[in-house]
Amino acid sequence: MDLYQEKEILGDALAAQKSATNLFNTYSNECVHEDLRSTMLDILADEHTMQQDVFCSMHERGYYPTPDAQQNKVDETKQRYYAAFKPLS
Asked: Is pLDDT of 15 > 70?
């Protein structure tokens, strides 16, 4: 008998990848030496790729449903983003 089902295993993998990307992002921001920072950023990119692969796998199997966004919500978010990050003139 299996202790864990596929959904739980993939969910754990996704949580681990999210944690790893957060950690490597922090590490890359705190590097003094450029060679080490570059290495951390390379690892971070790899971790993001793995995270996306796990997410897509879960989504394709119906384990991580993502409902379509309502257009008015998309427009509101865009307006808030543009207002918050509008260049100073």
From this structure: yes
